[in-house]
Design goal:
alpha+beta; 4 domains; 25 strands; 26% helix; elongated
Amino acid sequence: MYFSIRYYAGSHARMIVPKAYEKEFQSVDSLSFGKKYCTVRCLTHRENDNCILISSAAKEKLQLPDHRMAMCHITADKARLTVPFGVFTAGFQIEGQLLGPRTKYFEGFSTTGQELGYQAVFFGCQHLSTLPAYISGYVYDRQVWRKIESPLPEVVYNRITNRKTENHPKVHQALRTLKEKSRLFNPGFFNKATILKYVMESNETDHLLPPTIFNPSKQMLGDMLQKNAVYIKPTHGSRGEGLMRVKQNEDGSLDVHESDARHPHRFQSIHSYFQAYFPQGSSGYLVQPKIDLLEIDGKPIDFRVHSNKDEKGTWKITLIGVRIGNENQPTTHHIHGGTIKILEEIFSHVRIRQIKQRLTDTALTVSKEIDQHFDEQLGELGLDIAIDKDEGLWLFEVNSKPGFFLFDHPALAEQMNDYFSYSYRYGQHLMDRDTD
């Protein structure tokens, strides 16, 4: 049963339910939210609306968010509130796992929510056709996925899978609707150029970027290649897609190694390379010099750092993983042959403390800087940070919807429950903020 929820000032733990539901609630003497519980006195009111009134004393004991609707489950003398929490995504499967390879992560996400008093409702743009009355969607409950009908959750977490899907007109329209009718966080994928410019323009973070040129000309690329190999990246790419490592040989030829290729391609000149890859110009690309990264067994490493906002809207560092590249690949991303380790598997205790502190300080500074440009719409970030052989620290990329691949490492998988809790905690912040 879904009810609207209102709070009133009261020093005793009480809930006041509609008279029409007196029979269902007549034995109730306790109320729970997640793992929190309190004894309550249950009264009735004669208003015609489908509303439960909860005293401020009960709200405080249960640490309830300032939500406006909830589902109430009754078992004998116990009532339990769960708040719908929307997850907007795509890729629903008719057969097999409901959400493909992501299903195991979203099952963990749902379980975490249940422990905190939330019911994660997964839905896509195809499930919004029945608004404004309700949406359809899927919930994971007692190890089974079920299709349900639900009011539109007050908070919606955007987990659209990729840029192509996010740019579909129907998804665009759905996102506009969600922004108007709920509190949507994680507005969309980043444009690398925009984010890097934010970082470059700040005195707090400008030193973190390698020299970066947007929309490079042949002359600019040639000047950089005389000094070192370079990386060329699309500003709308993700997961290492479209990345190229370019090296100039003594005879002027170029070896170009793409992220999805086993071996480099050779071009006789910069001109022939540009003709092949950028016949219309290099708009939408950037170039940076190759950094001599720390290595393990001859393989380059960098770090994936996750930052999340908590129930106060404050950035916290929630995960740190080490990515070890394949020596034959230009990127450390796991999709292209990279592997995941934890700091403890590679470094000494003293070194771990040093690296962890540097990564934490840097990721928090960058997260706060970027957040200033998004009016609290961001709830999480994934930052790719590297340390070079001279101990210089570099920011390579900031991701608005970081993947869950770090959880493929057993030690990091143990942190999954705590990590997922931050999405719900930040959702609570958004609900509480708008009622202040």
